[in-house]
Write a structure and sequence with these properties.
It is a single chain. The chain is mainly α. The chain has a single domain, classed as Multidrug-efflux Transporter Regulator, Chain: A, Domain 2 (Orthogonal Bundle). Helix content is 48%, strand content 3%. The protein is built from 9 helices and 2 strands. Strands 1-2 form a two-stranded antiparallel sheet. A hairpin with a 5-residue loop joins strand 1 and strand 2. Helix 1 packs across helix 3 and helix 3 packs across helix 8. It starts with 15 loop residues before the first helix and ends with a helix.
């Protein structure tokens, strides 16, 4: 039997029911977050969703944004769109201009319809940008650090 610590934070481990229980969020709300692009769980061959530990953390964060901070889904998408994916992925200016995520103010980069050359063949679910807000307790502080360097 594997120890839970041997799994990566991005590994698909939980069914919708388990993710719902772990995040204390109704399954219908999680489905809405998926439909709106806030989370991108893995899918099995039978089209069932599987969630990673980072997805569970994201669900908890979304709940916090909705309830404690009064944001709606569009507001959360706008907030996540300001995470500087081009800085995290080290994209040069030419690569940025080829990517819809660089220009969008309403969608996080994993929702971009046209990805830049750096991200075209990447799985967003395991990307540092997707896990960024949940990986750090103070994303704004991390962004300030990144832009002041």
């Amino acid at each position: 039997m594997n120890n839970n610590n041997s799994f990566k934070i991005t590994d698909p481990l939980y069914t919708l029911a388990v993710a719902s229980k772990l995040s204390e969020t109704p399954a219908h709300s999680i489905r809405q977050y998926i439909d709106k692009g806030l989370i991108i769980p893995f899918k099995t061959a039978k089209k069932r969703h599987l969630f990673s530990r980072i997805d569970v953390l994201k669900i908890k964060s979304i709940k916090k944004y909705l309830k404690d901070q009064g944001l709606n889904i569009a507001g959360i998408n706008a907030l996540l769109s300001v995470v500087p994916c081009w800085a995290i992925k080290s994209c040069d200016l030419d690569q940025r201009y080829q990517c819809d995520a660089y220009h969008s103010i309403m969608e996080p980069c994993w929702m971009a319809s046209k990805k830049g050359p750096v991200c075209q063949n990447e799985d967003c679910r395991i990307c540092d940008v997707y896990i960024f807000p949940e990986k750090y307790s103070n994303p704004k502080g991390c962004i300030k650090e990144m832009t002041n360097s």
